[in-house]
Write a structure and sequence with these properties.
Distance between the termini: 59 Å
Strand content: 35-45%
Largest sheet: 6 strands, mixed
Bound molecules: zinc ion
Number of helices: 4
Helix content: 10-25%
Number of strands: 8
Length: 179
């Protein structure tokens, strides 16, 4: 599948639909590399408008993303939206308008073809939530030894261990609070 459109073809047909599988085994996010668990399904509609070349569509896949607290692999469903407007480089606005343009996701092109694969990656990256957790109440790892606190909720590192009598008291306090 080729994600590059020829502008000559677009100006003849006015509209091009690209639909297929985007080939990638890994997706690089700002902090982590994610394995692609399900073929990346993409549909894009490219239309020549009087404002420029409008691109709209979606990208769907499942990524393997580590839990942000315990690092366990989490299956992350991606349902991203592709939205961009391409304008010719000669239309680069004066400084004042620049900020507004970047909000609209305007991209400037200079050649006679446009590679849309970057828009696909971008739509995936944007759809990844700020925090990925294996479960909403994931307890994470012990910061000292890395023990998974979900599997061992009572875990205490050696030097954290306290007097058993005091610990009983703390447990009692905790039970009272919860009750
Ligand atoms: Zn977790
Ligand atoms: Zn520990």
């Amino acid at each position: 599948m080729n994600w590059t459109i020829e502008l000559e073809k677009l100006s003849q047909e006015r509209k091009i639909v690209l639909e297929g599988i985007f080939e990638a085994k890994m997706i690089e996010l700002p902090n982590v590399q994610c394995k692609v668990l399900q073929p990346i399904k993409v549909k894009m509609v490219v239309v020549m408008t009087k404002d420029g070349i409008a691109v709209g569509g979606y990208v769907r896949t499942i990524l393997e993303h580590p839990c942000d607290r315990c690092l366990k692999p989490v299956e992350l469903k991606i349902n991203g939206t592709i939205e961009a407007l391409y304008k010719h480089i000669s239309e680069v606005p004066k400084e004042k308008e620049e900020e507004l343009q970047s909000l609209r996701n305007v991209i400037y092109y200079s050649s006679d073809r446009i590679d849309l694969s970057e828009r696909i990656i971008e739509a995936i990256v944007v759809d990844v939530p700020m925090r990925v957790l294996c479960k909403p109440d994931c307890k994470g790892l012990c910061p000292r030894c890395g023990t998974d606190l979900n599997e061992d909720p009572e875990h205490l590192c050696e030097d954290q261990k306290i007097d058993p009598r005091l610990s009983k008291l703390l447990l009692l306090k905790k039970t009272n609070k919860e009750g």
